[in-house]
Each structure stands twice: as structure tokens, then as C-alpha cells.
Amino acid sequence: MKNFKNYISILVLIQLFTSCQETIDVDLPQQQERLVVDALMRIPDDSSAFTTAYLRLTLTADYFADDIPVVADAIVNINSESNTYRMQYRGDGYYSIAIPRTEFIRDLMRLTIFYNGDTYRASARFQTAVPFDNIVQGDGSLFAGDETEVVFSYTDEPGITNYYLFDLDKGQFLTSEDTFYKDQAFSFSYFYEDLKPNDTLNVDLIGINKPFFDYMSIVINQSGQASGNPFTAPPSEIRGNVINATNEANYPLGYFAIGEVYSDQIVIE
Fold it and tell me: What is the 3-state secondary structure (H, E, C) of the chain?
């Protein structure tokens, strides 16, 4: 009898483990496929006559999709006040073209995308930025105790209200407005996980305007930056400044912005 009871117990355990391995299919609602426009154009502070503009076009994907669908067959134009530039496809959804730096800085730039029978439009003006004053490694930590502190310092551009976007590498972005440090030097700490000695961080400080500041603040908050790219579609759809001029209901996601960028780097000790 004892052996028989043990046998029954083994059968029950086998059934439990088997049931735990059964696949559960979750039916998620199908979302309409939309164009995603990643068109933050970073204009370096240099004396070059031409600046290469980049953007990327993708499509929204299902939640469990392994790959992001890219758009390779769009017609993409950028118009200054006096010229029209046709962006060339470079692969993996990226388009680029060299444009005179003076036009980027001076003119209202208009973006037009022709894709799948629809016309998408947006416009943007150049926004100034400031360089980093200093980037140093700190010795602070947060909750786990093994984070790496990096301290960023810069001086706010005087006389105007400024909004900044920081690309802190490793898929990490941060927005800042100068409300509490207007016209002053300012520093902040950022804590990275999983950095090793001799790792290099390549960081950008980008000038942006208030609407793009609001947009990016929401996107960063909702995405949690887990994707490593806040320009991918977040959990809930956030409308940017790109419109569908052909079919308003088939609106796109993403943003068109032009900002001066200052780049720097730090090697982790």
C-alpha cells in the first residue's frame, strides 16, 4: 500500500509539472499599423558648410514582435525657404541628405513624406544648445549599491528660456528645462547600471523647444527606456508633430525636430 501511495504521489506531481508547461495563448487586440517617424536632426556646432540630416522610418509592430518593420520605399523631402532636398535611402529604414548648414539654422524646415498613398508633413526650426562644461565619474550609488555615478555640468544659455535633451548613451535619455537654474551653471548626477572599467560613454546635449520637451518627457516616462529607444512606439500612442495630410485618421507617430548638439565622452574607471 505504501508503494502504491508513493506511485500515486508521483503521478500527481507529473501531472502538475506537465500542466505548468502548457502554452497559454493570450489574444491581444490588433492595433492599426502606423508610420513611425524618428526625425530628431542633430546639428553639430562646427564650421562645416554642409550638415548631413538623418531620419528613420519604421512601422508599429505587435507587442510580441521580434523585429521592427522598416520603411524602405518612401519618398522623403526636406524643404528650406529656397530649396527642396530629396533624402536618399541608406538601409534599415534610414534616409539622409547633406544640406547647407546656414539653411538649417536660418530657415523654417519642412518635412514631407510620401508613403503608401498618403502624404505626411511636419515643420521645425533650429534650436540652440550649450556645451558640457565637465563630465566626471562620481562615487555615489543608489539602491543596489553597484551603480556608476556620472556627474554632468553645463552652463545655461543666458537671456532666453532653454529646454535640453540629453542622450546619455546606453539608450538613456533625459529632458531638462532651465526654470530653476536660468543663466547659471548647473550639474546633475546620472546613475548607470552594468558599466565596467574602460567602458566609454558617448553623450549628447541637444537644444529643443517646449513642445518637443513635453513630448519627450512623456515618451521617456511611459517607455521606461527599457527598449533603449524612446522613439519606438510607447505603450500608449503619443501624437507628435507629424500629421497625415491625406487621411487624418491614419495619423503617424514620432516627431520632427532640429537641434544644435554638443557631444562629449567619458571613459569609466
Answer: CHHHHHHHHHHHHHHHHHHHCCCCCCCCCCCCCCEEEEEEEEEECCCCCEEEEEEEEEECCCCCCCCCCECCCCEEEEECCCCEEECEEEECCEEEEEEEHHHHHHCCEEEEEEECCEEEEEEECEECCCCEEEEEECCCCCCCCCCEEEEEEEECCCCCCCEEEEECCCCCEEEEECCCCCCCEEEEEEEECCCCCCCEEEEEEEEECHHHHHHHHHHHHHHCCCCCCCCCCCCCCCCCCCEECCCCCCCCEEEEEEEEEEEEEEECC
Poorest-pLDDT segment among 98-102, 145-149, 176-180: 145-149
- pTM of this structure: 0.84
CATH of 35-128+231-260, one of 1.20.1070, 1.10.3470, 1.20.120, 2.60.40: 2.60.40
